[in-house]
Write a structure and sequence with these properties.
The protein has 263 residues and is of the alpha/beta class. Helix content is 37%, strand content 23%. The N terminus and C terminus are likely disordered. The structure holds adenosine-5'-triphosphate.
Length: 263
């Protein structure tokens, strides 16, 4: 059986900088059913964490609690030391969030979404940044389109642009590329890499294991609400050779076999 926890040192590598994200004992029950077992997680500045796992593993549940959108059953989340429940405004000032199916306001244009975000986060000189983001995500022609008039991919691109506009310390991306065209995927991939290089920590939840493999500094695998691996790709390869896909099947398949054995 593959080791489950060789690796929590990875994310809490000694650093003089404060952690961007600190999660302790985070768990969630839905009507008595446990969706996420108690999770501990630290993320240092500039790190990209790939969050992977089969359908129903608890990825979105974890992300929504970290974002302060979903109440926790137990545990705590701190962003740059600010507890998400006790100090939601201070914590969320540093947070950008791209949900899996963004729903922009029907009555605001693309540009007005950026303006609204800038005012909410008190971003100075936002129009020049917004122009750059419109070009990056090929939304220039949609500048005056209403939220309700956008395709799914365009909604995701707008969500990316709004999430990045305040240049947050932490970006949570829940399956963010699923609706993007190849140019959009490339733009988003390079943007994520560049943002991390500037110090933003990123959690990228995705079933696109190739993407996670090229971007992530560390990998967290959830399965049925449990953390089954957290470490670097190199650490994962010490358990199982091959790419992330082989490692993913070995780790999650192993758990299945173990569960069957103990049933
Ligand atoms: P996917 O890859 O399919 O998006 P996921 O890893 O994001 O899955 P979650 O959406 O976090 O998984 O779901 C984790 C578990 O919690 C699943 O068993 C799911 O059925 C359950 N769950 C999620 N939302 C609710 C809800 N609103 N009410 C009841 N159960 C829920």
């Amino acid at each position: 059986m593959l080791s489950h926890s060789m690796n929590d040192a990875t994310s809490s590598e000694s650093t003089s900088e404060p952690l961007t994200l600190s999660v302790r004992g985070l768990s969630r029950d839905y009507e008595g059913t446990r969706a996420l077992e108690p999770l501990d997680l630290d993320l240092a500045p500039g790190r990209i964490l790939g969050l992977v796992g089969p359908n129903g593993a608890g990825k979105t549940t974890a992300l929504r609690m970290i974002a302060g959108i979903l109440p926790t059953t137990a545990g705590s989340v701190a962003i740059l030391g600010h507890d998400v429940e006790a100090e939601p405004v201070a914590a969320k000032r540093h947070l950008g969030w791209v949900p899996d199916d963004p729903t922009p306001f029907d009555s605001l244009t693309v540009w007005e979404h950026l303006e609204f975000t800038a005012r909410l986060f008190e971003v100075d000189a936002w129009p020049s940044r917004a122009e750059v983001l419109l070009r990056l995500f090929e939304l220039v022609e949609k500048r005056d389109a209403l939220g309700g008039e956008l395709s799914r991919g365009m909604r995701q691109k707008l969500s990316f642009a709004c999430a990045w506009l305040p240049e947050p310390a932490l970006l949570l991306l829940d399956e963010p590329l699923s609706g993007l065209d190849p140019r959009g995927i490339r733009a988003a991939r390079e943007a994520i890499r560049g943002w991390a290089q500037r110090g933003t920590s990123v959690i990228l939840s995705s079933h696109l294991l190739d993407l996670v493999e090229v971007l992530a500094d560390e990998i967290l695998v959830l399965d049925r609400g449990r953390k089954v691996f957290h470490g670097t790709l190199a650490e994962a390869r010490a358990l199982r050779s091959g790419g992330l896909e082989e490692i993913f099947f070995a780790i999650t398949g192993d758990v299945e076999a173990t569960n069957e054995e103990s049933a």
